[in-house]
Amino acid sequence: MLYPIVKYGAAGLSTPARPVETMTPEIDRLIDDMFATMYAAPGIGLAAPQIGVPLRLAVIDLSVGKRDAELITLVNPEIVERDGLQVEDEGCLSVPGFTAAVARPGRVVVRALDRQGQPFTIEGTDLLARALQHEIDHLEGTLFIDRLRGVKRDLIVRKIRKLEKAGRW
Ligand SMILES: [Zn+2]
């Protein structure tokens, strides 16, 4: 099943999500639906709050469906190490049509559960580090535009408000 992706302005995008307590067939199904929704968008990452589900759950696939080995499912992820710095353009399926340069650590180590409920650790640099941080931010109720300096953020927010008023958001 494909879910509609909620956009900036939806309350669920600015609220911290709650941990997944047990892996159930429903959660497993939800993970499949999240991958399908992400590919249909298309995107390289999707967090559950973006489909209106307030759980600490995210999927990433930098290959956008081309290589199964690159599917990453993160249940209750936590960043346990971060270092370095990268500044790259970033976008978000919940903020369609906008990108901006965002400064983030260049490397992170994340601890999470996989879809079987087993703990694992993943290290990412460059784009993977960025995707991991972007998705985990969603679980905290933070969007990439919240990481921009005031003026840059205000400009995007103002444009979104105009689109909203015109009924195009
Ligand atoms: Zn996003």
Describe the protein in words.
The chain is an alpha+beta fold. 27% of the residues lie in helices and 25% in strands. The chain contains three helices and seven strands; from the N terminus they run H-E-E-E-E-E-E-E-H-H. It has helices at residues 25-40, 126-139, 150-165, and strands spanning 45-47, 57-60, 72-83, 86-90, 100-104, 107-113, 119-125. The strands form two sheets. It has a five-stranded antiparallel β-sheet with strand order 1-2-3-6-7, sandwiched between helices. A two-stranded antiparallel ribbon has the order 4-5. Strand 6 and strand 7 (119-125) form a beta hairpin. It starts with 24 loop residues before the first helix and ends with a helix.
What are the SSEs and their pairings?
Elements lengths: L24 H16 L4 E3 L9 E4 L11 E12 L2 E5 L9 E5 L2 E7 L5 E7 H14 L10 H16 L4
Antiparallel strand pairs: 1-2, 2-3, 3-6, 4-5, 6-7
**Amount of beta strand:** 25-35%
Which of globular, elongated, flat, extended, rod-shaped describes the shape? globular
- CATH architectural grouping: Alpha-Beta Complex
Order of helices and strands: HEEEEEEEHH
Mean pLDDT: 96
Looking at how many chains there are and whether they match, the oligomeric state comes to single chain
Q: Report the span from N to C terminus.
A: 23 Å
The molecules bound to the chains, other than polymers, are: zinc ion
Number of strands: 7
Major sheet strand order: 1-2-3-6-7
Structural class: alpha+beta
Cα-based radius of gyration, to the nearest Å: 15 Å
